[in-house]
Design brief:
By secondary structure, the protein is of the alpha+beta class. Helices cover about 35% and strands about 20% of the residues. The two termini are about 40 Å apart. The model has no long low-confidence stretch (mean pLDDT about 95).
Length: about 325
């Protein structure tokens, strides 16, 4: 592995590896207003939420690596103790990028970036109409994290009002990630669009599973199952007994089909017909293991366990 000492590598090298590896990062699109009433917009990808009671968002208006100066956002936030944090969606990513231009401090960045300002309810900073989610915030604390070129400044903000475009709300009253279409920041010029096949569901563990250390060696040493597959198997609460496995297999009706059909079912992610076909062929271990893999990926964990335990006897 490439091993790096940040103190020896320096700020530029360290930054490259940090932002390249830690991503995609959510983007805080921050609106502030100066003491002279000048609107400012700027995106920050060192950003996340840090609690809901009180609701807290934090981002880092870091010092510039080239000359140790700070952005207008930092100065405005210290002066007014207020801001509005917006989410960045794919529909506004180019305008967001434009707003990162270092316009002079006396330039209103709303018209420069083509965004529409909206009055906020509880803070003076304007809201960006084109973003679907706005968080009106009060600065709780600004924590300086070094004071050197490239050092962060952690702006810890309490959310005092939230505005959400109803177009991104789902039928259950939550935010629909497909409708929201967020953008995340990676290293260099790379971004991630959180939509389409990039989105997937992963249910939280339901109770306490048996754990990875309880997996039989033949499963751990599989050449077909991935680490993710093994992690999913480890979530089962109890490993099926021999009786359960035999009862399960005996209830499967062989369909008399062969490898052509098996491969088709595998392409279709049809684990049930895969098993019926595998049992028809010759109860081949590798076919049963391939069946279990598809069952795992279909969130049919118990089906997969019973198939794998039977395969060890095949």
């Amino acid at each position: 592995m490439l091993t790096i000492d940040p103190k020896e590598a320096g700020n530029k090298e360290s930054f490259k590896y940090l932002v390249g590896a830690v991503g995609p990062r959510p983007i805080a699109f921050v609106s502030t207003i100066s003491e002279d009433g000048i609107n400012n917009l700027s995106p920050f990808s060192f950003f996340n939420c840090f609690g809901s009671n009180p609701p807290v968002l934090a981002f880092s208006p870091s010092r510039r690596g080239r000359d140790n100066t700070v952005k207008d956002t930092y100065n405005n936030l210290l002066a007014t103790k207020e801001c509005v944090i917006h989410v960045v969606t794919y529909s506004i990513v180019e305008q967001m990028n434009l707003s990162s231009t270092e316009f002079p401090s006396d330039v209103d960045e709303f018209p420069k970036s083509g965004f529409t300002p909206l009055d906020s309810d509880l803070v003076k900073a304007k809201r960006v109409k084109e973003s679907p989610v706005h968080f009106e915030c009060k600065l709780m604390q600004m924590v300086e994290l070094g004071g050197q070129a490239g050092s962060g400044n952690l702006a810890i903000c309490e959310v005092v009002k939230i505005h959400i475009n109803e177009a991104v709300i789902n039928e259950k009253g939550g935010i629909d990630p497909f409708k929201l279409d967020l953008v995340g920041r990676n290293g260099g010029n790379w971004y991630t669009r959180a939509n389409g096949e990039a989105l997937f569901e992963l249910p939280k563990p339901d109770g306490i599973g048996v754990g990875y250390d309880s997996l039989p060696d033949f499963i751990k040493n599989s050449k077909i199952l991935t680490g993710n597959n093994l992690g999913s198997l480890s979530l089962i609460h109890e490993i099926p007994s021999d009786f359960d496995v035999n009862s399960f297999i005996n209830a499967i009706e062989k369909n008399g089909q062969g490898m052509v059909e098996f491969n088709i079912y595998e392409d279709d992610l049809d684990h049930e017909n895969m098993l019926a076909t595998a049992l028809s062929i010759n109860e081949n271990y590798s076919l049963l293991e391939r069946t279990a893999k598809i069952a795992i990926e279909n969130n049919e964990r118990e089906f997969a366990w019973k198939t794998l335990l039977y395969s060890s006897k095949a």
